[in-house]
Amino acid sequence: MKMSPSRRNLGLVWAALGGAVLLIAVVAIVIGMSSGATQTPTPNIPSAPPTSTQNTPGSSSTTEPSAGDSVDASVRELGWVAEPITRDGDVYVRAALSAASTFDTQLAVRDQWLSFLDSWFTPDTRYATADQTAELESARLELRQSVVLPESEWESLDSEAGRVVATVNGPIDFQVVPDDESGDMSIGTADVVLMITRTDGSDGELSYEDTVRVSVQVLCGAGSVPTPDSAQQAGDCKVVRFFPEPLEP
Predict the structure, then answer these.
(1) CA neighbours within 13 Å on the CB side: how many for 65?
(2) pTM reported for the whole predicted model
(3) Is residue 48, in this structure, part of any structural domain at all?
(4) How far apart are CA 228 and CA 175, in angstroms?
């Protein structure tokens, strides 16, 4: 398993996005931006407990929820991707990769969005119970520092009423996770298409696409810790870690 230097990571894509912000700012020198964004209620955003225990990405069972089930469907009203309740690794990886780059700066602030993404995580069962909390927080910190849109770029996009919708349309490339004796974890890598929309400097909007290849590690087995006060169960898929660069076999 190695990191692919031929693919741009999210950091490079967001850096390019920052350049686009500056270009559009020059075109729209005299535009007065509205500063009174409407506040929206924060959804119930739980944090994952620091304990865990184990089973198989993509496997099915008699307790598999019906298609369309999610932890909290109301988050879609904030421009986010709802976390699916599933034991299908392919379904879950697609949603997780989309969620890490889908947001609307006019519907929720960045800290709300990051707290929501935190709720997708579960502890890494490869570590001793005493070490799982530290590893979980490390994975969440890595997401903030190296994967998602930086705060400065969020603010620039916010000033232009910006939003991003990420989709995964192609195949997911799966690989095994080192030292995972349970066999319940996997790393999914795919091309994510980012549709970026912002004001065009007059009364309209402009949209453009970029594509980035991203990897996420998920646990679909008995060791996953469900989101509290939700229909999720132990064994349903959860995120272990997002990677700042794609991992290729």
Answers:
(1) 21
(2) 0.76
(3) no
(4) 29
Give me the domain span that covers residue 237: 7-22+53-61+70-248
Spell 215-232 as b/e; 16+ CB within 10 A means b: bbbbbbbbbbbbbeebeb
233 has pLDDT over 60: yes
Tally of domains within the chain: 1
Region for residue 58 given its phi and psi (left: phi exceeds 0; alpha: psi -120 to 50; beta: otherwise): left
Query: Given this model, what pLDDT does residue 74 score?
Result: 95
Confidence at residue 203, expressed as pLDDT on a 0 to 100 scale: 80
Are the C-beta atoms of residues 246 and 4 closer than 8 Å to each other? yes
Query: If pLDDT is split at 50, 70 and 90, which confidence band does 195 have?
Result: very high
Distance CA 77, CA 189 (A): 27
Is the residue at 189 inside a domain?
A: yes
Q: 126 in a domain, yes or no? A: yes
In a domain, residue 40? The reply is no
- Tell the burial category of 199 from Cβ atoms under 10 Å away from its Cβ (0-12, 13-18, 19+): middle
Q: How far is CA 18 from CA 36, 81, 138, 245, in A?
A: 23, 23, 26, 19
pLDDT exceeds cutoff 90 at 65: no
Is residue 93 within 8 A of residue 218, CB to CB? The reply is: yes
